[in-house]
Amino acid sequence: MAEKVIMTAAEMGRALSRLAHEVVERNGGAAGLVFLGMRTRGVPLAQRLAARIKDFEGVDIPVGALDIGLYRDDLSNLGVQPKVQRTDIPQDLFGKDIVLVDDVLYTGRSIRAAMDAIIDFGRPRTIQLLVLVDRGHRELPIRADYVGKNIPTSLQEEVQVRLEEVDGQDEAVLMRGEVKAP
Amino acid sequence: MTAPSLTRRHVLDLDDFSAGEILHILDTADAMKEVLAREVPRVPALRGRTVVTAFYEASTRTRVSFELAARALSADCVNLNVALSSTTKGESLLNTVRTLRALGADVIVMRHSQAGAPYLVARYLNICMINAGDGAHAHPTQALLDLYTMRERLGRVERLKVAIIGDIRHSRVARSNLWGLAALGAQVALCGPATLLPRGPELELLPTVALTTHLEEALEGAEVVMPLRLQLERQQSGLLPSLREYRELYQIDGARLARAHPRALVLHPGPMNEGVEISTEVAHGAQSAIESQVTNGVAVRMALLYLYGHGEVSDVRAP
């Protein structure tokens, strides 16, 4: 598979800094915010954003982890059994402003599942969506409030975000499927 | 580590589960336990699926545990009342299950007094079959919840010293536990009167399992102590001289538990004969995990229903 880097480590760092500022600006501060990272890679992204906000705003934002395995609607299409992990909600979500954090936004189905999961934990004031890469091809009426980078893709391509904490390095790549012989 | 694929349709016993697959189930159960701790313990994972509990032998705890597990996953759950069902009119087991499948059942949870009954159904009918205890043969979901509880409380199962005490020969709990404990690398001592210890070629497959009639030997350094329910009818069938003698030689009481590892965990598959195989003091003491076994049972059964209960029922092999 051919691989093209669409975001370097330095670019990812700058994008996260900008996103952190955008979140605080849009919410008029950091009070009442809760970050929920979607497993797997949304969790370290949410932690990094919270650390940046702590630096310039001096506020500790609670960070949780959401596993949407039990809320998916496409299980029987997957072929292999996905691993379900614990969901970890740091505090009562009632009346909070939730920022849902994920690495790649694609069809929007996992975001739909994530919203169902969040609402099971209480009624937040708002749910906002932050993604590092938006690759298009939505199948549901969902859009992100904060986007690190928009990457137009074809359905044959795959976007992979790699993070230091999970993959040993920071980068986002675009992978093209093998061209099949006619 | 091999993750389970969607090809497994049944949970009949643990003898065909790899260590990787067992650990995957335990990890999934861990996520389920978080769901059970929520204010509203319910997720939509099995919405639209139907789970039927068919208990041909009395059991409250296991059946209720499965029903709660199915409901927490939003499955529909139907209890087949065997005493009032067409079984009493002479319908065969296979025909009963065929009917249930035609009515839309996706998963059958079966308990049967005949060893092998769930295997018969699994062989001929394409439906997810979970064995909830068959005769003296197997009780895989109980073994999995025991393994889960050990791992949760003690951090691992590998190299754990486990003593199982009592009527091993007639115990489906002990048998399924042996497969699971051996797969995960525990050291097991089976202890009881010689008449209640197992004999058979299977034991040679399990090099980490030792037999003894001396309780002190089994308890020495044990990190898990699991007395089994003593079926009172064993005395009538002549396998035990008297209940009093059994109690004196094999009851787990405070003094005997003190011979085990200081942090030893006490497990019991229930229902307990308090004062026979276990003293009241130990059953409800600080080292007892018997109540958490019950909660963990729901989480483990949720994991099994989730992992194996949503496959599509397609091809049918007729007998």
Overall pLDDT level of chain A: 93
- Provide the β-strand percentage band of chain A: 25-35%
The name of the CATH topology of chain A is Rossmann fold
Mean pLDDT of chain B: 91
Q: Could you name the CATH class of the largest domain in chain B? A: Alpha Beta
> Can you count the helices of chain B?
12
What's the CATH architecture of chain A? 3-Layer(aba) Sandwich
In percent, how helical is the residue content of chain B? 25-40%
The CATH topology annotation of the largest domain in chain B reads as: Rossmann fold
Spatial shape of chain A: globular
Provide a concise account of the structure shown.
The complex is a heterodimer of chains A (182) and B (319). With 182 residues, chain A is an alpha/beta fold.
Annotate the secondary structure layout.
The complex is a heterodimer of chains A (182) and B (319).
Chain A: E1 2-7, H1 9-26, E2 33-38, H2 42-57, E3 63-66, E4 97-105, H3 109-120, E5 126-134, E6 146-150, E7 157-162, H4 164-167, E8 171-176
Parallel strand pairs in A: 2-3, 2-4, 4-5, 5-6
Antiparallel strand pairs in A: 1-8, 7-8
Helix pairs in contact in A: 1-2
Chain B: E1 10-11, H1 19-36, E2 50-55, H2 61-72, E3 76-80, H3 93-102, E4 107-112, H4 117-124, E5 128-134, H5 140-154, E6 161-165, H6 172-183, E7 187-191, E8 209-212, H7 215-219, E9 224-227, H8 233-236, H9 243-250, H10 254-257, E10 265-266, H11 280-283, H12 290-308
Parallel strand pairs in B: 1-5, 2-3, 2-4, 4-5, 6-7, 6-9, 7-8, 9-10
Helix pairs in contact in B: 1-5, 1-12, 2-12, 5-6, 5-12
Please provide a written account of the structure.
The complex is a heterodimer of chains A (182) and B (319). Chain A has one domain: 3-Layer(aba) Sandwich (Rossmann fold). Chain A has helices spanning 9-26, 42-57, 109-120, 164-167, and strands at 2-7, 33-38, 63-66, 97-105, 126-134, 146-150, 157-162, 171-176. In chain A, strand 4, helix 3 (109-120) and strand 5 (126-134) form a beta-alpha-beta unit. In chain A, strands 3-2-4-5-6 form a 5-stranded parallel beta sheet. Chain A has a 3-stranded antiparallel beta sheet with strand order 1-8-7. With 182 residues, chain A is of the alpha/beta class. Chain A is globular, with a radius of gyration of 16 Å. Chain B contains 12 helices and 10 strands. Chain B is α/β, with parallel strands linked by helices and 319 residues long. In chain B, the strands form 2 sheets. In chain B, strands 1-5-4-2-3 form a 5-stranded parallel beta sheet, sandwiched between helices. Mean pLDDT of chain B is 91; it is low at 313-319. Classes of the chains: A alpha/beta (182), B alpha/beta (319). Chains A and B meet through helix 3 of A and helix 1 of B.
